[in-house]
Specification:
About 50% of the residues lie in helices and about 10% in strands. The protein is α+β, with helices and mostly antiparallel strands and about 100 residues long.
């Protein structure tokens, strides 16, 4: 529902999220060897990795304790706030030209 409304309001932004992009080597290893992936599906993969491996801090759920696999994606940081996740993932995806 939200994605549909966003597609109507700003289709170029949504297209940038769902278009396939060639992944760098470090991201390919995290994505299970896939060479192309959209920004949105990669971010969802990061989020599912965090949830499946129980990487959220038990005392402060807004902090993620990164394992070695996640550190390759999140600039080598050992702890990341949830609000920083989209920005750190976005660094790996090139900005689309207008």
């Amino acid at each position: 529902m939200v994605l549909r409304r966003a597609a109507v309001e700003s289709p170029k932004k949504v297209a940038a999220l769902v278009d396939l992009v060639n992944l760098p080597t470090a991201l390919r290893e995290f994505a299970g060897g896939r060479s192309q992936m959209s920004h949105l599906s990669f971010f969802l993969g990061v989020w599912s990795h965090i949830k499946n491996n129980n990487l959220q801090d038990p005392t402060n759920r807004s902090i993620v304790n990164c394992d070695e696999k996640l550190k390759t994606v999140l600039s080598g940081r050992s702890k990341v706030e949830l609000s920083e996740l989209p920005m750190l993932v976005k660094l790996h995806f090139p900005k689309a030209f207008k």
